[in-house]
Amino acid sequence: MKRILLKLSGESLGGLSGAGIDTGVLNSYAAQIKTVAAKGVEVAIVVGGGNMYRGSGEANAGFDRVRGDQMGMLATVINSLALQSALEAIGAPVRVFTSIRMEPVGELYGKAKAVEALRNGEVAILAGGTGNPFFTTDTASALRAVEIEADVLLKGTRVDGVYTADPEKDPSAVKFSEITFDEVYRRNLKVMDLTAFTMCKENNLPVVVFDMDDEGNLLRVVSGEAIGTTVKNA
């Protein structure tokens, strides 16, 4: 893998509680990212914001959805800045790009600038989602991955792949090593939201779902080891 888009969930950054920022998890992620980038892999990252704020959840309680999603975008920026700080602390070159103008917090995102950073060996953190309400950070990940021409979208979670059912609720659930987009859709498996899923399928962008909390897994994935589940076209 030469260029990757790594999607990290906000809940994962929150550690066991799923809320706030667990510095142990944050530093572990930063160390793994630095190791991969040092191998010459170009790394772009999209971080969710669910550990800070989830606009869609508040909308279900009667909160204005547009305003809520804008608050969620800001939550992703907070997480992105935390990850930037953790990477800088261990000597990894990194730049934050935001989908809406927020200088000096981050540079306004543009494909050319982000690709230039990647080619210069910098980790590019792409914050703020798509910059529009009603789109998740899964969709932002798919969009940015297609834009920057990433080889793969890596979905780093606390689960080690895609199963036939929720393994925490169904002990007979079986993990897939590979599965097609069509089969995921047919089985109604929860890999990512449908908008993101369709974008990956239509642009022939493979998705690898893996456990980011298992130290060293990111390097194993980019090195070609059979870690997690690969979702791709037939």
Can you describe this structure?
The mean pLDDT is 94. The chain is of the alpha/beta class. It contains 9 helices and 11 strands. The chain has a 9-stranded mixed sheet with strand order 4-3-5-2-1-6-10-11-9, sandwiched between helices. Strands 7-8 form a two-stranded antiparallel sheet. It has helices spanning 10-13, 23-38, 55-60, 65-89, 111-119, 137-147, 181-187, 194-202, 217-222; strands at residues 3-8, 42-47, 94-98, 107-108, 123-127, 152-157, 162-163, 175-176, 178-180, 207-211, 229-232. The protein has one domain: Acetylglutamate kinase-like (Carbamate kinase).
Name a few traits of the molecule:
234 residues; alpha/beta; Carbamate kinase; nine-stranded mixed β-sheet; globular
CATH class division: Alpha Beta
Low-confidence stretches: none
- Helical coverage, percent range: 25-40%
Q: Name the shape in a single word.
A: globular
CATH superfamily membership = Acetylglutamate kinase-like
Tell me the strand percentage band.
15-25%
Tally of domains:
1
Number of separate strands: 11
Q: Sketch the major β-sheet.
A: 9 strands, mixed
Strand/helix succession: EHHEHHEEHEHEEEEHHEHE
Helix-strand makeup class: alpha/beta
Kindly provide the radius of gyration, computed on alpha-carbon positions and rounded to a whole number of angstroms. Answer: 17 Å
Strand order of the largest sheet: 4-3-5-2-1-6-10-11-9
The CATH architecture category equals: 3-Layer(aba) Sandwich
Number of helices: 9
User: Termini separation (Å)?
Assistant: 20 Å
Assembly context of the chains: single chain
CATH topology descriptor: Carbamate kinase
Mean pLDDT: 94
